[in-house]
Every structure is written in C-alpha cells, then in structure tokens.
Amino acid sequence: xxxxxxxxxxxxxxxxxxxxxxxxxxxxxxxxxxxxxxxxxxxxxxxxxxxxxxxxxxxxxxxxxxxxxxxxxxxxxx
Length: 78
Prior knowledge:
Largest sheet: 2 strands, antiparallel
Oligomer: single chain
Order of helices and strands: EEHH
Shape: elongated
Structural class: mainly alpha
Strand content: 5-15%
Number of strands: 2
Radius of gyration: 22 Å
C-alpha cells in the first residue's frame, strides 16, 4: 500500500510542500523589493521628526521616552 498524507501520495505531498516553500520565498523577496522601492521614493524620516510621538506610544496615552515594543513575528520552523 502506498503511503498517503491526507488525500495525496507522499511523493505528491513533497512536491506540494516544495512548491509552497518556493512561493513563500518569492513573496518574501517581493515584500523586501517593494520596501526598498518605497524607501527610495520616500526615505525614512529622522528620529527626532514630528512622527516620533507615534513611535513612543503617545498616541495611545503612554507618556514615556521608551519606544513602543512590537513583538517579533514567529519564525517558520522548516
């Protein structure tokens, strides 16, 4: 009997996983490329700009000099 994962053979499963990983890599590359292009059009502002208050959390009523903490996205475990 052939090994099956779900409704597909193990070989087809491996093909699908490989294709999915390739697509994810392409998306990641596209996102970084778009970010580079956007930075070329509108470079990042200096830290002491008017938008600094947003980064320091004052928009949410937190009056602190500590920058806002954003949790890192989980890293895929391939």
